[in-house]
Specification:
three-stranded antiparallel β-sheet; alpha+beta; elongated; Factor Xa Inhibitor
């Protein structure tokens, strides 16, 4: 059987930590930021841990 290919969309959106957690970018900071409060855009900075159910699906797409 051939090797399983990594899902191209998933590899751009998720990354695995050393301990195996799946990290993702927070939603809502890609565009139209001019009218959003600075507090909101700062809150959306950085990565967040994916919820357990979604993490299982993401790991499957990443081939892990």
């Amino acid at each position: 059987m051939p090797k399983m290919k990594t899902h191209s969309g998933a590899k751009k959106r998720f990354k695995l930590t050393g301990s195996g957690k799946v990290m993702h970018r927070k939603a809502g900071k890609m565009h139209l930021n001019e009218h959003k409060p600075s507090t909101r855009t700062r809150r959306l900075d950085g990565d967040a841990v994916l919820s357990p159910g979604d993490a299982a699906k993401a790991k499957k797409l990443l081939g892990k």
